[in-house]
Amino acid sequence: MLQAVNVRKSYQSLEVLKGINLTIEKSEIVSIVGSSGAGKSTLLHILGTLDNPDSGEVLFDGASVSSLGRNDLARFRSRHIGFIFQFHNLLPEFTALENVCLPAYLAGRSEKEVRVRARELLGMMNLEHRAEHKPSEMSGGEQQRVSVARALINSPEIIFADEPSGNLDTKNAQELHQIFFQLRNELDQTFVIVTHNDQLAEMADRKIVMRDGFVVEE
Ligand SMILES: Nc1ncnc2c1ncn2[C@@H]1O[C@H](COP(=O)(O)OP(=O)(O)OP(=O)(O)O)[C@@H](O)[C@H]1O
Ligand SMILES: [Mg+2]
């Protein structure tokens, strides 16, 4: 489904990615681990088309995304890719339901259909009773589950998560991890997850370790 071919990225004289090759298959949960500064977020942003490599390519279903212009790339991203970040990035002035709906409105989908799906997704996250709450009125675990529903609203082929449980206590982290596996089992959802959480890294179907600008599989 997703392929990185000889991806390189430097910041000034700092070579962060020195030629990354990897493949992600459909309905896999792949974890990416490595020490702080190893380049995990840099790689995730490039795989998720939020950033460009200096050289090399990212292919989705065999097609290169580097040739897409700004607008086509934004459209591609909103239809095919979901993101979950360490800090949920929910908009504070909107309710949970509205936050989940927003990426779908931006993709031009009809309001009625989107709201129905958003309520379903909040239900899957055990949050139907929190739909009208604003982020500040929810716990950290609840906020992060809203951001999972938001990542799912456009039925992306792949979801990239950067330390999604980094800000959660053990119980909420475990609950979130269970949701990832449930989504994989029920919806065939594909995940690439950067994590410092050993338990999650080990539970994944595959674990990719970043070291010295390269990846090794464990
Ligand atoms: N925009 C930037 N400009 C300059 N250097 C950068 C930039 N972004 C990242 N770096 C550097 O690139 C290296 C890799 O950063 P990256 O954020 O990918 O690491 P990481 O593996 O995600 O670390 P962490 O586990 O702490 O999140 C770091 O040394 C960082 O300082
Ligand atoms: Mg990082």
How is the secondary structure organized here?
Elements: E1 2-11, E2 14-24, E3 29-33, H1 40-47, E4 55-60, E5 63-64, H2 70-80, E6 81-84, H3 96-106, H4 111-124, H5 140-152, E7 158-162, H6 170-187, E8 190-194, H7 198-203, E9 206-211, E10 214-217
Residues 11, 14, 16, 34, 36-42 line the site of adenosine-5'-triphosphate.
Overview of the structural elements:
Residues 2-218 form the ABC transporter domain. Keywords: ATP-binding, Hydrolase, Lipoprotein, Nucleotide-binding, Transport. The model has no long low-confidence stretch (mean pLDDT 95). The protein has a 6-stranded mixed β-sheet, sandwiched between helices. It has a 4-stranded antiparallel β-sheet with strand order 2-1-4-5, with helices on one face. 37% of the residues lie in helices and 27% in strands. It has a single domain (29-38, 69-217), classed as Rossmann fold, CATH 3.40.50.300. The longest helix has 18 residues, at 170-187. With 218 residues, the chain is α/β, with parallel strands linked by helices. A hairpin with a 2-residue loop joins β1 and β2 (14-24). The radius of gyration is 17 Å and the shape is globular. α3 (96-106) packs across α4 (111-124), α4 (111-124) crosses α5 (140-152) and α5 runs parallel beside α6. The chain binds adenosine-5'-triphosphate and magnesium ion.
Please name the defining characteristics of this protein.
218 residues; 6-stranded mixed β-sheet; 7 helices; 10 strands; 37% helix; binds magnesium ion; hydrolase activity; transport
